Amino acid sequence: MARRVYYRISDRPDGCFDAIVTVEPDTVVRREGFASLAEVEEWIEGLRALMAALGAPVSQCFEDPAHAQPAEAGSSRVCPPGKVRAGR
Asked: Would you tell me which of 4, 34, 65, 86 could form a disulfide with 40, CB atoms 3.0–4.6 Å apart?
């Protein structure tokens, strides 16, 4: 069975961006230090292509479940917790 994959983009005080990706049930990978929002979005599109080849859908994760997109609303966990591993 394919695992669901969620991502979240966070902006840092220094102006850079981080991508936090959660692979259900409990793996979290953080890719830090994107110089621009366009750069992190391009990386997310590459992630989508890779995960599509594996049959794992990628959805945006929202901190507030009230803002979840319909595809995510049926999930028991909008942004599941897990172990954090820094991406390289």
From this structure: 34
Distance CA 79, CA 67 (A): 12
Buried b (16+ CB within 10 A) or exposed e, 9-46: beeeeeebbbbbbbbbeeebbebeebeeeeebeebbee
Range of 36's domain?
5-86
Which pLDDT belongs to residue 1?
Answer: 64
User: Is the pTM of the predicted complex or chain greater than 0.90?
Assistant: no
Across the range 22-43, mean pLDDT stands at: 93
Between CA 68 and CA 19 the distance in angstroms is 18
- What six digits make up the tokens of 21? 């990706």
- Report the pLDDT averaged over residues 64-88: 43
Between CA 42 and CA 77 the distance in angstroms is: 26
Domain count, the chain: 1
